[in-house]
Amino acid sequence: MRIDAHQHFxxxxxxxxxxxxxxHGPLYRTYEPEELAPLLKAAGVEKTVLVQxxxxxxxxxxxLGLGAKHDWxxxxxxxxxxxxxxxAGRRLERFxxxxxxxxxxxxxxDEPDPDWVIRKEVVEGLRVLASYGLPFDVVAVFxxxxxxxxxxxxxxxxxxMVIDHLAKPPIKDKGMEPWASQLAQAAQYPxxxxxxxxxxxxxDWEHWSAADLQPYVDYAFEQFGADRLMFGSDWPVSLxxxxxxxxxxxxxxxLRGRTAEEQEAVLGGTAARFYGIRT
Length: 279
What we know:
Layout: E1 3-7, H1 33-43, E2 47-51, H2 57-69, E3 73-78, H3 85-95, E4 101-106, H4 120-131, E5 136-138, H5 149-155, E6 161-163, H6 179-187, E7 192-196, H7 210-224, E8 229-231, H8 244-254, H9 260-275
Parallel strand pairs: 1-2, 2-3, 3-4, 4-5, 5-6, 6-7, 7-8
Helix pairs in contact: 1-8, 3-4, 6-7, 7-8
């Protein structure tokens, strides 16, 4: 089963997305399932994980509603107010009963405080999340957030985490450190996974290919292994630097040196296990 473990939808007429404004160019419009469906079919992708694009309960309800209408949406990563553990618990009591609700994310990279995710109240909120057996998608945009993952892993060992977009490595600058050292530290914890996603927008938007992604993909394999890595398109954010077909194709090229079993894991198996997605 081919799974895109990271994609988004938003409707500017129904929801508010504080981060999204005209400066984002082609992203500043509504994106919904009817536009993505033919792209998935062309790539042979059978299921997706729909990930939150706003820190709001309304966005989560919106995504769950879309999932009820489109059976190829295999799961939803929503939002609860992690810095209010009691409120987070109340919402999780409700959301966790929905078969498509598979985890939680917060746009931590939009928080003025770069250390928001390790605040005492947020750590308590993450403990509540872990008590429901649900994972946390970490928007660990380098250099502010990746370094916090070992801290969280030590204090909440029962919390499964997945690093979105490999924490946005410095691909455009062809750099490795200190990103590589921080990723390696995070990978020491078996409950931490990572997504090979969003890499094209960390590269030169106009000129990128699998060759630019390869060193970072290979390094991620060295640290995590295929059983803790999963593919994600990051559509429609990925449109800033290429279409769905290019992201799928070039990621596939970057995986060509891997065994069939490793490719199967990254392109579907890992996500199916991590999020509990069934055919």
